[in-house]
């Protein structure tokens, strides 16, 4: 097999298999949780649950840009906030607003959208990589994170880090030939897709549950979430 | 086996609500910075996420494929009796179930509730600290953890009525409002009882005490036992039903309010009546003009601040009323601590912690955060609406030899009511 064939394989059949595993795995996790049953909340509310949910999501989305009511924890744990926030922003910019990935979405979904100019996307990718290194170092030394981190957490970082670095090297034509780098990038992406439903990276799905619950709990008490 | 009991409880109580939140946790550790016990001591095991670790493991092992595979491969071990003993310390010594952590978690996980669920497992397994369990058993047998038996209740109330010359209606059929005090107030802060009686009488409330529902405190809720929590709630509801009241008012007690206002309806049949807190009622009275407070009554050159109780303010929703009152009483000399309101730092004595002797050192250490906060605003008097916080403050003021005064909000209101 030469590199062109390997690339074709990792972009083609392997990618499709990984996608199917990803979608099926996530659906399985979702259905499992939904099927556990939801007790109806019979407590009479003091305030509006709906308002609480809206505020909760706004806080969740804006937690990074220093909104006043998170300020005190921001100052307590700046690395995690800054690096974690920048890392996710970078993911969003590169995966959704970058032209290269938009085209992948287009081929999957059938429609595309406006994208950011390449230099911005490129900078954000670099920011994401640096942020991941910061998260990694933080995990090594923070006493609480040391307690919380096992093989699964290291693997999470690794599985996300590899596609980011290989993607960056790919766009900058670093070290290896284009086909080689592209193959490596696709291979790491395929692994990531398979890993997500097996791991806590699935948090992006359950995020919508937990933030909604948070909003309901605070909203019904008429307290700002 | 203790762990079997705990696991059964976890499994029974895990529905989508619990599971989706456990699934959402990214193990980022941010919640640690929210917890006053972690902040004060730096012990990593006091991180909120670590306190709910047993529940997560139980959930994974019982409900998920990955968890089962992990146990089979030896990556994770089944929850053991030793684990329970170890976690019992984290959960009862180093957590007041104040839910500050939930404000900080980027995923918004309601960590306090999940920790309460871990306590439910502990209660089922019987690994609750002895001091706390002794108080629970006392409440089961005598009706009160502080020995407020029928006779004691009656004589204390008669004494308060005499001493402060307030009318304290008892078992009054046809009353609209049942007022239930906590044993801390009955035994340690009787002035609170007189103060609240004065407020209700001045407002012209048609209220009563009940010799059956004489005690709002719920040590079963601290323990985490569903059975005991319900048993103690039942006593209050029975008394209320018997008198046919329309409203139950919880006095300056935090966790009891949490139990009866925000949990009872999901645990049992609750009679159709309004349940509120005395602070909420005071707010209503002031708004509607049923009581008039002397403006500026406390502007005497001293500085006042308000301590937010986790169960009455953050988890109870009565954040504005105390401020409304303080701004009338002390427009010039009321100062806010920082952080405050729903972001406030807990007193460190709630959740049953103050009842546990072995937790004393940690409890005092944690209170240093409050010392710093109060000193920062230079307050002479700290006002609060929870007797449990007040117990903690009074004890710590003595322990640290501080020159602050500690006051109940109802007391200040009663002292400043105009005729
Ligand atoms: C709705 C979308 C998402 C939300 C709200 C979200 C939220 C979070 C939060 C709050 C954390 C913990 C704190 C931090 O490190 O920033 C986190 C960690 C993490 N997230 Fe996300 N995330 C989302 C999507 C994703 C996606 C799509 C990926 C990867 C493909 C991802 C990968 C990670 C990784 C690897 C970590 C762990 C970082 C570490 O070890 O410290 N997230 N996420
Ligand atoms: S509920 Fe309060 S005391 Fe308990 S872990 Fe959370 S912040 Fe700490
Ligand atoms: S802050 Fe929330 S998501 Fe992060 S470790 Fe704590 S509970 Fe989990």
Return the string of H and E elements of chain A. HHHHHHHHHHH
End-to-end distance of chain A, in Å?
56 Å
> Secondary-structure element order of chain B, as H and E?
HHHHHHHHHHHEHHEHHEHHEHEHHHEHEH
Total number of β-strand segments of chain B? 7
Helix content of chain B: 40-55%
Structural class of chain A: mainly alpha
Helix content of chain A: over 70%
Give the number of domains of chain B.
3
For the record, the CATH class of the largest domain in chain B is: Alpha Beta
User: Number of helix segments of chain A?
Assistant: 11
User: In angstroms, what is the radius of gyration of chain A?
Assistant: 20 Å
Q: Quick one: biggest sheet of chain A? A: none
Bound molecules: protoporphyrin IX containing FE, iron/sulfur cluster
- Find the CATH topology of the largest domain in chain B: Rossmann fold
| Overall pLDDT of chain A | 88
Task: Chart the SSEs and their pairings.
The complex is a heterodimer of chains A (225) and B (419).
Chain A: H1 3-11, H2 13-35, H3 49-62, H4 71-76, H5 78-97, H6 99-109, H7 118-141, H8 143-148, H9 151-171, H10 178-195, H11 203-220
Chain B: H1 2-13, H2 16-24, H3 36-41, H4 48-51, H5 53-63, H6 65-73, H7 81-93, H8 100-104, H9 111-125, H10 130-142, H11 150-164, E1 177-180, H12 183-187, H13 190-202, E2 207-208, H14 219-223, H15 226-243, E3 247-250, H16 254-262, H17 264-267, E4 274-277, H18 278-288, E5 304-307, H19 310-314, H20 320-329, H21 360-377, E6 381-384, H22 387-399, E7 405-408, H23 409-415
Parallel strand pairs in B: 1-2, 1-3, 3-4, 5-6, 6-7
Helix pairs in contact in B: 1-9, 5-6, 7-9, 11-13, 13-23, 18-20
The structure holds protoporphyrin IX containing FE and iron/sulfur cluster (2 copies).
């Amino acid at each position: 097999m030469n590199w062109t064939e390997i690339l074709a394989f990792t972009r083609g059949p392997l990618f499709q298999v990984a996608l199917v595993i990803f979608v099926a795995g996530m659906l399985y996790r979702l259905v499992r949780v939904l099927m556990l049953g939801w007790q109806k909340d019979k407590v009479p509310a003091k305030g509006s649950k709906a308002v609480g949910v809206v505020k909760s999501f706004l806080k969740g989305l804006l937690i990074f840009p220093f909104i006043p009511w998170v300020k005190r924890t921001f100052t307590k744990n700046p690395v995690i906030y800054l690096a974690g926030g920048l890392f996710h922003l970078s993911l969003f910019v590169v995966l959704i607003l970058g032209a290269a990935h938009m085209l992948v979405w287009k081929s999957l979904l059938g429609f595309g959208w406006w994208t950011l100019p390449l230099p911005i996307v490129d900078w954000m990718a670099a920011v994401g990589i640096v942020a991941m290194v910061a998260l990694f170092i933080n995990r090594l030394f923070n006493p609480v994170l040391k307690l919380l981190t096992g093989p699964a957490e290291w693997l999470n970082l690794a599985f996300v880090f590899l596609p980011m670095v290989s993607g960056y090297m790919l766009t900058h034509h670093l070290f290896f030939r284009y086909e080689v780098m592209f193959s490596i990038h696709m291979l790491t992406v395929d692994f990531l897709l398979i890993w997500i439903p097996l791991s806590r990276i699935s948090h992006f799905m359950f995020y919508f549950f937990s933030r909604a619950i948070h909003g309901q709990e605070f909203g019904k008490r008429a307290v700002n979430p | 086996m203790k762990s079997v009991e705990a696991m059964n409880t976890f499994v029974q109580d895990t529905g989508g609500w619990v599971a989706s939140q456990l699934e959402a946790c990214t193990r980022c550790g941010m919640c640690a910075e929210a917890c006053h016990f972690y902040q004060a001591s730096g012990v990593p095991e006091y991180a909120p996420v670590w306190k709910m670790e047993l529940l997560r493991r139980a959930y994974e092992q019982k409900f998920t494929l990955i968890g089962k595979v992990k146990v089979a491969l030896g990556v994770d071990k089944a929850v053991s009796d030793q684990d329970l003993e170890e976690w019992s310390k984290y959960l009862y010594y180093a957590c007041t179930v104040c839910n500050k952590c939930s404000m900080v978690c980027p995923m918004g996980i309601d960590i306090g509730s999940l920790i309460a669920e871990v306590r439910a497992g502990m209660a089922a397994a019987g690994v609750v600290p002895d001091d706390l369990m002794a108080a629970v058993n006392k409440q089961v047998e005598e009706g009160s953890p502080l020995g407020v038996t029928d006779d004691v209740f009656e004589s204390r109330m008669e004494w308060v009525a005499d001493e402060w010359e307030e009318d304290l209606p008892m078992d009054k059929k046809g009353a609209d409002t049942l007022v239930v005090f906590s044993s801390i107030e009955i035994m340690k802060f009787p002035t609170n009882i007189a103060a609240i009686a004065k407020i209700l009488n001045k407002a012209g409330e048609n209220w009563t005490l009940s010799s059956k529902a004489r005690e709002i405190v719920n040590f079963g809720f601290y323990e985490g036992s569903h059975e005991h929590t319900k048993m103690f709630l039942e006593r209050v509801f029975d008394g209320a039903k018997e008198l046919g009241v329309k409203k139950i008012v919880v006095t300056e007690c935090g966790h009891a309010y949490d139990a009866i206002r925000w949990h009872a309806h999901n645990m049992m049949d609750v009679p159709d009546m309004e349940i509120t807190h005395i602070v909420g009622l005071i707010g209503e009275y002031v708004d509607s003009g049923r009581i008039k407070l002397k403006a500026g009554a406390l502007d005497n050159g001293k500085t006042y601040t308000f301590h937010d109780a986790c169960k009455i303010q953050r988890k109870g929703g009565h954040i504005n009323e105390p401020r409304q009152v303080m701004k009338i009483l002390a427009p010039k000399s009321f100062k806010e601590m920082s952080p405050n309101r729903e972001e406030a730092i807990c007193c460190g004595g709630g959740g049953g912690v103050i009842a546990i002797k072995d937790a004393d050192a940690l409890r005092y250490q944690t209170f240093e955060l409050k010392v710093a906060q109060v000193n920062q605003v230079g307050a002479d008097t700290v006002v609060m609406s929870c007797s449990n916080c007040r117990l903690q403050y009074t004890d710590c003021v003595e322990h640290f030899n501080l020159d602050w005064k500690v006051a109940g909000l109802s007391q200040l209101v009663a002292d400043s009511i105009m005729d």
